[in-house]
Please model this.
Amino acid sequence: MPIASAQSIVPDRDPVMTPDAICRIDRLTHVARALSQEAQTIQANLANAERRFQATFQHAPVGIAHVALDGSFLTVNPRFEEITGYPAAMLMRLGFQQITHPDDLDADVALLGRLHRGELQRYTLEKRYIRADASLIWINLTVALVRDERDAPEFYVAVVEDLSEMRQAHFDAIHDPLTGLLNRRGFVVRARALLRQAAEVHRAVSLIYLDLDGFKQLNDSRGHSAGDRCLVDVARLIEDMVAPRHVVARMGGDEFVLLVDEEGTDLGEALRVGLMTLGGAHGGVSGSFGLVTLIPDDDTELDSIVARADEAMLAAKRAGKNQLVTTALL
Model:
């Protein structure tokens, strides 16, 4: 076997690095290190942003849901589960249509259509959910549409606030706690609205003022609990005899008022007869009625109508009670 020469077994030497090459390598190394640090910073920032989003989503004091274009839930946060009473897994199977009260669904779907078509950026709606226990809950719903990179609709973001306490507080402020009828404050608000509507179409209205006869004697002989039961029964009698659009209130004590958008003499007489029948179970309680009928205009003052009806009611008292006295302001 031939023996290799000494020259053939000597390893090649590394080429000599010039100062310029060393400088370029140093710069490239510095850039690579900077890019690596920047990538790590971006990754850390993304991780922090994701943690913040999850914390906001999970612990938000409002309900948050991502909703597919067909109405099915993609994800919900714990507060949304609390508001609706459904666990997340059940909500995924139901979709928003199934938990929305039927009377509110059309308005919600119509707004979703406008949002989908780009006519709205977002919308807000007060509506009712049917909770898992079949009870109703009023919520304030705000919905926005998320679009993908091609600007095509992708999914909806829904934010839900529980209005139960707010609506209960509003209800309590304008309703009588014993009978559930409007109180004086609630009557003023509703009655003024009805007067405006009647004035626009030049329609007659009647205000009926009722004061119970014999109520003090009932309280004195049978106690206040018996008096309270009588007031509640009178309230139910009135509600059963008037249309939902009419305004009925307990003004305080044993006094009630009704504002109806029609000539109310027949209604007043029917109430008088109905109260006589009801009063048989409450120690012979009856009622004195004062009625005012008019066609309101923009200058009509509610206080003056109430005062005139009150005067007519007092005239019924003086005439022997259990009567209806009418006054026309047509």
Observations:
- The first helix runs from residue 19 to 59.
- The radius of gyration is 38 Å.
